[in-house]
Amino acid sequence: MVEQIDVSARAAAIEYAIRDVVIPAVELEAQGHEIIRLNIGDPLAYEGLPTPEHMVASFKAALDRQDNGYGPSYGIPELRSAIASAESAKGWDCSADDVYVTHGVTEALQVIFAAFLEEGDAVLVPGPHYPPYMAYPQMYGGTTLEYRLDPDDGWRIDLDDIRSKMNDSVRLLVLINPNNPTGNVASPEEIDSLIEIAASWPKCTIIADEIYDGLDFTGHQCSVASRSDSASVIVLNGVSKVYFAPGWRVGYMAWHDPKGTLGAVRDGVERLLRSRLCASTPAQHGFLAGLADDSGWLSDHRDRIRRRMDYCLERIASIDGLECEAPGGAFYLFVRITNPELATDDKAFVLGLLHQHHVLVVHGSGFSPEFGSGHFRMVCLPSVEVLAEVFDRIEAFLRG
Ligand SMILES: Cc1ncc(COP(=O)(O)O)c(C=O)c1O
Question: What is the pTM of this model?
Fold first, then answer.
């Protein structure tokens, strides 16, 4: 065999459970099997959840008028203003200058970690959590620590666990609200406590990943920035989930700095953003149209998702061997495997289900070895007919 050139340790360490399980699925597809994929949170892969027409039209119009050049590094001014208005409407004073448009929230995360972290710094994230919060900090010398979400109490935040893990090296405290993969929505009281904790550590900034905020079924989801006059907060959001356009790759960060301590790090972020040029220009016009609309269409999409989620919860409740805390938002179910033998190796469970019954879900340990193992995550976005087939197959797998 030809000797291979070394890969960097940082790239070799990257894992992304949601896409890693696709490799065996693709092999099965190549053999002619049809796989029901429930691994990726992409509404466009499922029936009845399209990107709204008016957003698509605005994206297309930008292409037609040759608005295809590089844009300003922090985002086109109209979009920055519209995002600032949308954030201000959530209850805090956001100006266009506080907004930076990125190539999705994912790019915003990389930029934030690059600007905040030095060797030995930590990022404290919910356990379980969306995998890039584990994968990226290590690229910048940081480590990811997890705080516990209570699996027996709707994945409520364990505030004492956060308190016990805070110290000066925790530079970023992350709240994903609603959370992926568990769907828990933090109450205003939980958010206030989290802000109070962060505020007592002057080097700590809160990341509030609110990318699922419009998909809240509890009625109590609220903006973290709107509740903080002490801790600094970086709000993350974009078109991927609530605007049903994940392939456009547009998101943003909005900086709330009530104590004025983030000037230097913000300068670093701006340098990084200038050096990577800009986010997609026509896609930004598409997002702008979404923000300008009254978004009445969203309630239809949300109701459809809710019906599908309710169907899943009913089926799970009727299946011996599975349990699930009802999510408060987003479109995932984080399902507990109750049979201890099957639960000890959740990846083997997922691969068994894939090979024997051609249903693709993601192992819970991919979202947190400590707090997610013994579970699997599935999206609840397919039509009820497809979901009925999914649960019939899962039942057959558990019987077998
Ligand atoms: C919590 C969370 N944040 C961010 C993202 C990705 O956002 P974007 O598509 O804007 O990069 C996801 C995608 O699943 C997510 O679940």
Answer: 0.96
